[in-house]
Amino acid sequence: MYQAINARCAFPCWDEPALKATFDVTLIFKTDMVNISNSAVVLEKAFPPNDQDYLDLKEAFPTLNDKWKITKFHRTPKMSTYIVAFASGPFEYIESKVKLPISGMEVPLRVYATADIIHQAQFALDFKAQVLPLYEQLFDVPYPLPKLDTLVAADLDAGAMENWGLITGRTSELLLDPMKGDTIAKKSVIETQAHEVAHMSFVFDILAFSVSSLVDGVCFATLLGSLIAVGEFYFFLANLLATMYHS
User: Fold this and answer.
1) What is the DSSP string of 102-128?
2) Domain 7-246: which CATH number of 3.30.2010.30, 2.40.280.10, 3.30.465.10, 3.50.50.60
3) What is the structure's pLDDT at 98?
4) How far is the C-alpha of 179 from the C-alpha of 93, rounded, in Å?
5) pLDDT averaged over the chain?
6) Could you tell me the pTM of the whole model?
7) Which is the catalytic residue, given 16, 191, 196, 232?
8) pLDDT band at 3 (very low <50, low <70, confident <90, very high)
9) Active-site residue 173, yes or no?
10) N or C, fewer C-beta in 10 Å, the chain?
């Protein structure tokens, strides 16, 4: 999590929200790991030990062999450093697609998590598919990215983070046990997803000029998340009362 000025700890950059750039991310990890970033994968292959393009890398890291792989991602749109993200791990994912009302795009949606908890991510995925089209219609701004992933992390500095195209969040904020989840747990997931997806859609993060403008964006996203959570709660309550009445 790089907000607001911690990207400089990961890679050399002008680490200020007002300064935008495109990012070409390449990850090299073991072949049994799953690599993800802000953009979709453009190329993934086993590490080629004799490829001239990688001789310098091989010299710097002699242990690289065909048990490692290279994952290259599409170039990102211009954006601030604090919303760059990449991760690698033993992840599994569930996925769906949603057709957006203004752009007409069909956007792939995924939630990544480890195998032991991925079954608890369905509610977050389903709600993300509901709220993304709503925001595009509400702001009258086409969603600017070709995909939207969510990564569930065991630990994170904040509850969740609005990395562009790759939302990250704690297990407590994004997972719902289908056998045990109650209304309060559902409300927490709804608020988190509504908040983070709002950042994907509106211009605060696209046009962020300073740390103070980031605070404005967080406040607005929190308001939206709370309003949508309240709406979802009353919809759930109305359905529950109707079911009780008819039974």
Assistant:
1) TT--EEEEEEEEETTTGGG-HHHHHHH
2) 3.30.2010.30
3) 96
4) 20
5) 80
6) 0.81
7) 196
8) low
9) no
10) C
